[in-house]
Amino acid sequence: MVVGIIVGASIFVQPSVVTARMPTAGGALLVWCVAGALTLLGSLVTAELASAWPRSGGVYVFLRDGYSPALGFLWGWAMFWSMHSGIVAAIAVVAARYVGTWIPLGDAGTRAVAIAAIGALTGVNVLGVRQGSAVQAALTCVKVLAVVLIVAVGFIAHPRAAPANAPDGSATPSAFVAALVAGLFAYGGWHMVSYAAEETVDAARTIPRALLVGTVAVTALYVGVNAAYLRVLPLGTLRGSTRVVADFADATLGGAGAQIMAALVVLSALGAMNGVILAGPRVYLAMARDGLLFRRLGTVHARFRTPHVALVAQAVWSSVLVATGSYRALFTRVVYTEWIFFGLMAASLLWLRRRPDYRPVFRAWGGAATPVVFAAASLVIVAMQLVDQPRDGAIGLLLVLVGLPVYWIRGRAPSHDSSTETSPRAVLVDEGP
Question: Which residues are listed as membrane-spanning (predicted)?
Fold first, then answer.
């Protein structure tokens, strides 16, 4: 899940955004390394919190128990209406557009294929955790192999490196930060594995291991594939490319580049989308269990042991966003706000560690420095968005804050008593004794 959700279509797009801001190949690779290091810090924070509270909901639970139910509700509110549903819609449209490489679709056909993909993957995840995770594992293995092959082609099958470009100016701190923000978005989704904690065997230990191994693996893949891009394509070409992997394939394998690119993007998009579809409803289930959403959303299927109502609700809203095209505005305006929650989540460790009832199985390495550095990075990302796009940034923040009146109208959350929760493995796990 960690690798499959992070490695989506963005690694085939974002390298041009990063290199556009960096004057040298070495500087671009440094950005990918630093972005991976910061993602590792976020994973360490999430790993500690998940080992302390291995419950369905992940970030929602961390914000609810670390701060207040209101903050947890705002996270879930933004997730359903924009962040996660918008991600599902956006990825589905990307996959459908690349299916159009083989079959002419047109706008209506592209939307129909995207909605069909959402429906199919939702159906798989309704049928059971085993089925959803099997699809996730298969798609992840295929696309990781594809990324490894890109690296191999770049360094082995393509014997001559591209001519080195003279540095185009010098990297300013603001340019480096802008490139870093672009790189970090390609690492997005690392936290979602924590949503399904109650369906994970020995979650308090398994999720930290998954986060750490998965994040390190993705960083190695990203640095390797960008080194391959930079070896084959001149820096100037890479900066202006809107289809990086296709240009790479054209340069190494000839005219089949477009077909290869389409296959890679479709596989990567489907793998990332399946992971998001699997993870998101676990948050809505936890919120419904706490009385913050309609109880029906917390229903677990009697046979398949999955939150089928929440899965279907997410699919319906994501499909509406695809059909209307409104996911673009929602997603681009609201997605940056998740970093506000990430920063708050990291900062909570500074006082949670002093609470006698806080007993994590795993402790984030680096002491107080880890949450402080990650919280500061989150603040910089939010500030960059507000400075670069003040109108969209303000609208996005307002859309999230609209959830507060809804929370108050709902009568606020009842006090949460973890002792009354049904055994997670009795409720959700789709397996035998």
Answer: 29-50, 71-96, 108-127, 134-156, 176-197, 209-229, 260-285, 306-327, 333-352, 364-387, 393-409
